[in-house]
Amino acid sequence: MLNAADINFYLSVFRWLDLKDMMDLARLAHTKELKAGEIYIQPGSTSQKLAYIKAGLIRTYSLKENGDEVTLMLRWENQFVASFDSVILAKPSRFIYQALEATTLVEVDYHKAKHIIDRSPELSAASHTFLLHMLGDAMDRLEGFVLLSPEERYLKLVHEKPDINNRVPDKYLATLLGIAPGSLSRIRKRIALQHKR
Amino acid sequence: MLNAADINFYLSVFRWLDLKDMMDLARLAHTKELKAGEIYIQPGSTSQKLAYIKAGLIRTYSLKENGDEVTLMLRWENQFVASFDSVILAKPSRFIYQALEATTLVEVDYHKAKHIIDRSPELSAASHTFLLHMLGDAMDRLEGFVLLSPEERYLKLVHEKPDINNRVPDKYLATLLGIAPGSLSRIRKRIALQHKR
DNA sequence: CCCAAAAATTAACAATGGTTAATTAACGCT
DNA sequence: AGCGTTAATTAACCATTGTTAATTTTTGGG
Predict the structure, then answer these.
(1) What DSSP state is assigned to residue B96?
(2) Hey, CA dihedral for A20, A26, A27, A29, is it positive or negative?
(3) Cβ of A146 and B84 within 8 Å?
């Protein structure tokens, strides 16, 4: 069940946890490998998976009526990923979660883990902190849409996550920024020209 | 300190609370009246006020370098309002919170209320639920920016909060939607024309 | 009730983004 | 390495928005 590498992993990520709680959690957790391009969560899914990304990158996207894909979120190594609709709102997921790279997840069922989380002060605090982080990220991104132009949003994104350009196709980045893929090309070109002077 | 109306109010809003917890909270709480136009929270403020809006409407806005005001958030009666930066991130507020109407708040200092919240399972759960709601709102609004056009965002806003048009000046609504005030006028006109046919 | 100030509308123009289609470049698979 | 597929770029054109300034409307105070 647990090999030495796994134990090391749990000890490092949850070192602030009571040992018993950690073992209880570890019993519920398992590792999942996704190939590049593989779908992690299908729309309509209600499973309350909560996953820590050990390595790789997950894209959350939506399908519009006309068939267009719109990227809503990107999550990568050392972040958590969960179906927002299923875990937070307890509804079927409207979105698709796809691994863009070979991805390693450590997954627990939130529904099963909940009673462990609830009885551990540290885990409760951690889940609170997790929510705060999610909220902080969301607010920050909202500010970007209200305060910044598409060009500025793009610059902010590459500043915060420089390797994103090499890991995520432009067409996905574009819709994440709220613009069309062609526009991202133009913005890139505009920036390059300004830089040359 | 507490009059009959106040007691009624606390009993109705926090009826699911342990009586002792409720009394402890009520001791920390006080009512605050704001006139239309009055500033509630100044930028730079670090006070961790957490307020329930009994009546009225609060606008959160930011000042850009060029002096332009950009509205980030609107909160109204029966919602909570708090300085996101101060309470969630424990930083000085970057934003200005202003009452757009005569507004009645019931206010507690989150810093002082925290130990009451922490020792009450009901209050802890409520604060968790509160965060989930904030997160849900933020995600929903993010979806709007990624999936919808400005016109569709405007229609969504008036659909969700029909009286917003009569309570908030257009110039504030415009920046909330991520567009310029002039554009909102045009969008309004376009919609009216389409409707006439 | 009137007047001054603020807000909303409108128009003209510039800048930007959306859309489509064609071309080029990059990628991935065998 | 080569080939077919997918992604990215580019261009042309259209639609929409941003910007500014002038005009009209609305609002609120005296």
Answers:
(1) E
(2) positive
(3) no
B196 band by pLDDT with thresholds 50, 70 and 90: low
Give distance CA A107 / C1' D1 (Å): 41
pTM of the model: 0.89
CA distance B85 to B146: 24
Give start and end residues of each alpha helix (H) in chain A: 4-13, 19-28, 110-119, 121-147, 150-160, 164-167, 170-176, 181-196
| Residue A75 dihedral angles phi and psi, to the nearest 5° | -130, 145
Q: Does residue A129 belong to the interface with chain B, where contact is any CB pair within 8 Å?
A: no
pLDDT of residue A73: 96
Q: Which nucleotide is nearest to A171 (CA to C1')?
A: D7
Q: How confident is the model at residue B1 (pLDDT cuts 50, 70, 90)?
A: low
| B3 or B41, which is more confident | B41
pLDDT of residue A12 exceeding 90, the answer is no
Q: What is the mean pLDDT of residues A156-176?
A: 95
Minimal CA separation from A169 to chain B, in Å: 17
Look at the alpha carbons of B77, B82, B84, B85 in this order and tell me if their dihedral is positive or negative: positive
pLDDT of residue B192: 87
Instruction: Estimate to the nearest angstrom the gap between the alpha carbon of B92 and the chain centroid.
Output: 18
CA atoms within 13 A on the CB side of B144: 22
Nucleotide nearest to A149 (CA to C1'): C16
For residue B142, what is the nearest residue in chain A, using CA coordinates? A142
Q: Which residues contact A144 (CB under 8 A, 6 or more apart)?
A: A152, A153, A156
Nearest CA in chain B to A126: B128
Of A128, A134, A178, the CB nearest to B146: A178
Closest alpha carbon within chain A to B139: A138
pLDDT per residue over B64-88, tens digit each?
988 899 999 999 999 999 999 999 8
